[in-house]
Amino acid sequence: MGGETNLLNDIAALEEKLMKLVDTKKAFPALMAGFFLVAVGTGTASALAEGDVVATVDGKAITASDVAFATRELETQLARYPEPRRRELIIRYLVDRALMVKAARAAGIDKTPAYKKRLQYLQDQALRDLLFKKETAVSDADARAFYDKLVAKEPPREEIRARHILVKTEDEAKAIIKELEGGADFAALAKAKSTGPSGKKSGGDLGFFGAGQMIKPFEKAAFALKKGEISKPVKTKCGWHVIKLEDRRQSKPPAFEGIKDKLIPLLRRTKGEELISRLRKSAKIEFMDKKAVKDKKENGDGKKTGADKPAE
Questions:
Q1: pLDDT digits (tens, 9 = 90+) for 249-263
Q2: SS3 label, residue 27
Q3: Where are the domains of the chain?
């Protein structure tokens, strides 16, 4: 992978040097025209099917499928280049790779033990990746069932919506309460006098929140209020608060469509963990690298053997 990445970078660097050396008014259009023909063949990227040939090297075809594989493999390295250049770079990379593969076979490298070992590793990796993709596939129906399961674990809970005015001293808080009792508007006072960010931004409105989301003294005082009621001064580590309860409600889960895109990768990870756990349970695993795993041994279920039990 490191050599392939370096090759891709070398191609881009060489291209930049050529552009500086040529007379851009005369040579650049011809250079890019040839480059474009190599890159897209006789069709556009979107029109190419998997088996369509985009280039040949001594008669050996490079297909759109090869381009797709290489694009995924080198996605991180390609990110530094503008979108229109990526396909061009990938096809040039595949052309150079085909030349090197042919030379390697001619030199008998494909018959060496080093090649066979690496080939076995890459085959195993491909099998692992394809199994993982198959076992962690997620449909909309899977995502919906996962959503329903999560929602069932989170029953509705009470939420309140409150405003507050934050000041430095208890006397300031008491003075604000007097103004409110005299008919002053809470939101206007919050914007004028609160030292908290919500004061200037939203008239002290904190939106809806549930138990455990606010500092304990603040939460206790806010939940004890009736709708429309204003609290006495409440002390927290932030200062002194005057709180007004605006509303109460029972929480509702977010809509499925609104969080589906977040649920799908989460479900994939969950399925992946379940797959690994299932496979471990059916296997006997022993770690021989004492330095790396500190003499740990695992049975198929992942439980430590007696040697790893803490001293009692």
A1: 998 888 999 999 999
A2: helix
A3: 2-111, 121-154+253-281, 158-250, 284-312
Nearest to 169 by CA among 193, 198, 201, 142: 193
Asked if residues 222 and 160 have their Cβ atoms less than 8 Å apart, the reply is yes
Mean pLDDT along residues 113-141: 95
Is there a contact between 242 and 233 (Cβ–Cβ < 8 Å)? yes
* Whole-structure pTM value: 0.54
H or E segment to which residue 243 belongs: strand 239-250
Q: What is the pLDDT of residue 174?
A: 97
Distance (Å, rounded) from C-alpha 180 to C-alpha 155? 37
* CATH code of the domain made up of 158-250: 3.10.50.40
Instruction: List Cα–Cα distances, 33 to 15, 29, 63, 216, in angstroms.
Output: 14, 6, 20, 69
More confident residue, 242 or 20: 242
Write the DSSP symbol of residue 26: T
3-state secondary structure the chain: CHHHHHHHHHHHHHHHHHHHHCCCCCHHHHHHHHHHHHHHCCCCCCCCCCCCEEEEECCEEEEHHHHHHHHHHCHHHHCCCCHHHHHHHHHHHHHHHHHHHHHHHHCCHHHCHHHHHHHHHHHHHHHHHHHHHHHCCCCHHHHHHHHHHHHHHCCCCEEEEEEEEEECCHHHHHHHHHHHHCCCCHHHHHHHHCCCHHHHHHCCEEEEEECCCCCHHHHHHHHCCCCCCECCCEEECCEEEEEEEEEEEECCCCCHHHHHHHHHHHHHHHHHHHHHHHHHHCCCEECCCHHHHCCCEECCCCCECHHHCCCC
